[in-house]
Design a protein that fits this description.
283 residues, four-stranded antiparallel β-sheet, globular, 12 strands, 27% strand, 2 domains, alpha+beta, Alpha-Beta Plaits
Length: 283
């Protein structure tokens, strides 16, 4: 018998549109009242360069909304796929965690644990557009989000209308002698959804995006994970044999998925099974 949970996931992966739930709080952030909503006139990407650690916003440990975060001692090797959001006029002119004024028309971003500042390359997995931004703020302090982009950066990635997008974030680093990080508190970054505005149409997705729910050296262990998913009503999963490594890895994954709504729903259902470490992978 098909369970309600299985029906939700089956419908989701079959391409049924999932409408995000609306809260009772009014949306208070958004784009500027005037200005270009196309790529024309947008700033160039910043040129990465070695910089000393910011005096403020670098922890090494800080707490927001009752949760503690540990700042990375170095950005070397950082690469992650997840969900990006953006913030706009509500925060324009406010001080960032590094005490630099936030300018929504510049190519900047907020991250919970990267050292400030760090340059990162952000690629929108839905259209393969790629930008470089300078991380100078903390956030987003919202579940299942890894980076908060400035309005200008979101425009260049063509994600202003959707408000969020599946992205890959990779640090651009230099050899440097970073010192010990000072203890600081931070002001929470935005937590509200972003309203739509007019931008150019989104390019058709060139990637096949999956949610990976484990990678195992043993096929039997992968099958056990698959059985756990099926027992929880998540039947739309499969074991993918990765022969690009030796010995091969057996990757349990679901998809392909079409966007953030599907990803959020899958993460929610996986959490009910005690699986809290899924990752995004692309083919």
């Amino acid at each position: 018998m098909t369970t309600p949970r299985a029906a939700r996931i089956t419908a989701l992966l079959a391409g049924v549109t999932i409408i995000a739930g609306c809260g009772s709080s009014p949306v208070r952030d958004g784009p500027p009242r005037t200005g270009s909503n196309t790529a024309a006139g947008l700033p160039d990407d910043p040129v990465p360069r070695p910089e000393p650690l910011a005096r403020y916003g670098n922890g090494p440990v800080y707490e927001v909304f009752g949760k503690r975060y540990t700042v990375m001692p170095s950005a070397v090797g950082y690469k992650e796929k997840g969900v990006a959001s953006w913030y706009g006029k509500k925060f324009h002119g406010n001080l960032t965690s590094s005490r630099e004024p936030y300018d929504m028309h510049q190519m900047t971003a907020a991250h919970k644990t990267l050292p400030l500042p760090t340059y990162v390359r952000v690629t929108n997995l839905s259209n393969n557009r790629s930008i470089v931004v300078r991380v100078n703020d903390r956030g987003p302090f919202v579940h299942n989000r890894i980076i908060d982009l400035s309005y200008a950066a979101a425009q260049k990635l063509d994600m202003v209308v959707t408000g969020t997008s599946l992205v890959e974030v990779e640090a651009i680093t230099f050899e440097s002698g970073n010192g010990e990080l000072p203890v600081q508190t931070v002001t929470p970054a935005p937590t509200e959804p972003r309203p739509p505005t007019a931008v150019d149409p989104v390019v058709t997705n060139p990637n096949h995006i999956y949610v990976q729910i484990g990678a195992f050296g043993s096929k039997a262990n992968a099958e056990r994970r698959l059985q756990l998913l099926r027992s929880g009503g998540l039947g739309a999963a499969a074991v993918h044999t990765d022969n690009t490594v030796s010995p091969p890895l057996y990757r349990v994954r679901m998809g392909p998925i079409q966007g953030v709504e599907e990803y959020d729903l899958l993460v929610e259902e996986l959490a009910k099974l005690g699986i809290v470490d899924p990752i995004i992978v692309t083919d």
